[in-house]
Amino acid sequence: MTQSIIDIASRFLAQNDKICLICHTSPDGDTVGGAFGLFYALKSLGKNVYVESFDGFPEKFRYLYPDNVEKFEPDHYATVDVADVGLLGNCQKNLSFSLCIDHHEKNSIEARYKCVDSGAAATCEIIYSIVRHLGVKISKQIANCLYTGIATDTGCFRFSNTTPQTHKIAAELIEAGAKSCEINFRLFEQKTRERLKLESLVLKNLEYYFEYRCAMVFVTKDMMRQAGADEADFDGIASIARSCAGVLIGITAREVENCQYKVSVRSNQGASALNVCKFFGGGGHKMAAGFKISGDMQAVKEKILQRVYEEIIH
Ligand SMILES: [Mn+2]
């Protein structure tokens, strides 16, 4: 990690007070863990600091944040794990940011100081370095926060963004008291009943094409209702279609409005999810991409399969 951006961020935080740390919308473990990890660190230095999330804080991360967060008129705003102002919710367009801490490849936040390292697997890796640089002892609370962010963004150390440095930092956090087993269980194994029901409906409705090289499922509003599932329950459902051995392309089309679908494509073994999505005006990464499409379900299905066929066969 570039030491200079850590220096700059640490110096700014050491020299200033009344700081509001801002999470991105649909908050995940990295933004919540990163913001509260830094919150506890700054608190221990006697700073006035609070964390703002315009979508609230998910119940799933209840173990990371205090019961009451006292707000005040801040002198400074700092974003945590936010790639773009579009991820800040509606009311936040006019804020000016003093500091931006992030690890997304494309970060378009305008801030006085930018502490962005796209080589970091999680924003929490960067925050770990900042906290150490500030001379703060990593408490159990801070360790749990930062471990949560790193585990979240690496899919429990399985994704290709995971580096030796990621493991080294995780090891230090566990030494500092992070409850890694408990956190991994909560994040990667435990599910709500609604989520399990939704998974069962997804599995029941999964269809295979092209000699089992493509798996596809439509998740309708009715299925969501049947399962009693909400947004949080849907998170990660798109990985199910690709999880079958032999499947090169997994498609999950979620009905968002009548005849409107949000399609997530996941690929494997050299097939490109991105190629498929680009054809429909979408984007993303090579193996995980998405697009939106409208039309009657059967027509949408045929259009997508046609494009998948070209990707798999040619
Ligand atoms: Mn992140």
Task: Give keywords.
314 residues; alpha/beta; inorganic pyrophosphatase (n-terminal core); Diaminopimelate Epimerase, Chain A, domain 1; 6-stranded mixed β-sheet; 11 helices; 39% helix; binds manganese (II) ion
Explain how this protein is built.
The chain has 314 residues and is an alpha/beta fold. The chain has two domains: 3-188, inorganic pyrophosphatase (n-terminal core), CATH 3.90.1640.10; 193-313, Roll (Diaminopimelate Epimerase, Chain A, domain 1), CATH 3.10.310. It has helices at residues 3-15, 29-44, 123-133, 140-153, 164-175, 180-188, 193-205, 221-227, 231-234, 273-279, 297-313, and strands at residues 19-22, 49-52, 76-80, 97-102, 111-116, 207-209, 214-219, 249-257, 260-267, 283-284, 288-294. The strands form two sheets. A six-stranded mixed β-sheet has the order 6-7-8-9-11-10. A five-stranded parallel β-sheet has the order 2-1-3-4-5. The model has no long low-confidence stretch (mean pLDDT 95).
Summarize the helices and strands and which ones pair or pack:
Layout: H1 3-15, E1 19-22, H2 29-44, E2 49-52, E3 76-80, E4 97-102, E5 111-116, H3 123-133, H4 140-153, H5 164-175, H6 180-188, H7 193-205, E6 207-209, E7 214-219, H8 221-227, H9 231-234, E8 249-257, E9 260-267, H10 273-279, E10 283-284, E11 288-294, H11 297-313
Residues 30, 81, 103, 122-123, 153 line the site of manganese (II) ion.
Give the averaged pLDDT, no decimals. Answer: 95
Whole-number radius of gyration?
Answer: 21 Å
Report the count of strand segments: 11
Q: Major sheet: size, sense and barrel closure?
A: 6 strands, mixed
Task: Give the oligomeric state.
Answer: single chain
Shape: elongated
Poorly predicted spans: none
The structure class reads: alpha/beta
Spell out the CATH superfamily of the largest domain.
inorganic pyrophosphatase (n-terminal core)
